[in-house]
Amino acid sequence: MKIHFLGTNGWYDTDTGNTTCVFIETDKNYIILDAGFGFYKAKNLIKKNKPVHLFISHLHLDHIIGLHTLPLFKVPGGIDIYIPKGMRKFLQIFLNKPYTSDHKNLATKIKLYELDTKKPYNIKLKFGRLLHSPICYGFRFVLEGKTVAYCTDTGKCDELYKLAKDCDLLITECSFRPGEDASKAAHLNPQVAAKIAGDSGVKKLALIHFDAGRYNTIKLRKIAEKSARNIFPGTFAATDNQIIKL
To answer: What is the CATH T-level fold of the domain 2-245, as seen in this structure?
Structure first.
């Protein structure tokens, strides 16, 4: 499978990148993780008539603002959007006037689903609530024999460890700089993320969601990457438009 990092900033867009969006291309599906402003790039990656599943971790604007670009999309089969339980009514407000174009009039049909542990899904999926100020879910997928966990925004918590356990790739956040105390915040620094990856038996760690105010250059991301690699060598600091194969 191919994993495209379309947006790797947290909070707001800068010269270092767009806000958070990850695009996974498999033989059977397209899976999109969050819809920050990097989301608009996905329209050029959906080239085949395969199901498109968009998973929204939470409704902070840097994770949904890219939905404003939905009028650019022409997806024959539509896009299924999965959101945390209880959040449907709030997202429906955002996907309507006066905030953006009415989603019922889009060329691409949109269906909204609240995630429920009691419901079966066509994808091998687990999810759980992370440590963040609003309701925020982390996700774990089994795709083409590989396990990918996506956990942002979050502080250190039991659910993060459960979702990350023994996965081939953990995609998680790096809002704080190396050495910054994140113990009382709902975010991570690179060393804490690396320690979690190592303790969880992760094979590879991708750092994303770099706080746009703290990480205003790519060089600062590289410093974070180095500090994380000292703890967990399989770490890389993702950048916008980076593609990896898994």
So the answer is: Metallo-beta-lactamase; Chain A (3.60.15)
